[in-house]
Amino acid sequence: MKKAALIILLLLFPVGFVSRAYAGMGVSPGAIINDKVAAGTTFTQDVYISRSDPDINLSAEITVESSTDSVDVSDWVRFEPGKSFTLPKGENQFKFKVLVDVPVDTEPGEYSAIMRLSAAPEELQEGIVNIAQGVRFDLMLTVTDEEIRTVKVRLAQVDSFPQSDPLKVKIKVQNEGNVEDAPNSLDLSVYDLDNNLIETYSTTSIEAVKPYETDDVYVEFDHSLDVGDYYAEIAINYNEKDKFVETSYFTVTAPLDQPPDEKVVYSTVESADNVEKSYRYVIIGGATVLVFGLVGYVAITLSKERAGVQKSHGKKKKS
Q: What total number of domains does the chain contain?
């Protein structure tokens, strides 16, 4: 009876014992919140999908449902790389962007939407239960007509550069406000490695960064630095009372239009020509000396032979 019951169960539920248990999936952050959005701006948020066991490709899709009655907030939301994308096999984490375009005529107030991410195997496999996974994450915004300026400097450095190029200061600026903004000023002092002050620079012209974004900004200065090693003391004023200070070491290299290697090659070729000419002169001179030596030797030998003949004839006459 027990065997019969087991056979009946296997016949009734043939796939129950070969189902694939797809790993869990999560989204971070679980809610996208911004309580200081300005009308007419775009708010961007990176979102990460985590998978505990990514053994197959999943086809993912995002849907958006407005939870604000007066406005369809779903029209504000877009995604990069899009609403549909693939979660690749072998990758535990996948990043996408949520971009919220707040219309310029939006009234101050609170707005929200519900976003749902669903994922299922790209290729359905015969004899296997293909279970779709889903996760919800919310969007909560507060639109304000107040201008909020909050800038932070995260990094400042001077990279090595050729002498023919301008001196560039790289600044990583994080704009947490709701309008385009930039640090107030930058002061730069350049020292040699013996701590001698060489040059100073200052500017209030710093490129602005879009609201809610972090970006690299470059400030350029003309300079008269010689080729060599230096360090820079960088002081950046922001938010009127805050200051970011950093020390950055860098090297000024030879100008790009005067490569040192080219000079070395040229002098080497020129020296080789001179050496070849010198060898030629030495060979010609040596051959000349040898010829003249042989001629001299032959002449002397002949002279001696003639003198010996004349002496032998004289002795015969006397006898």
A: 2
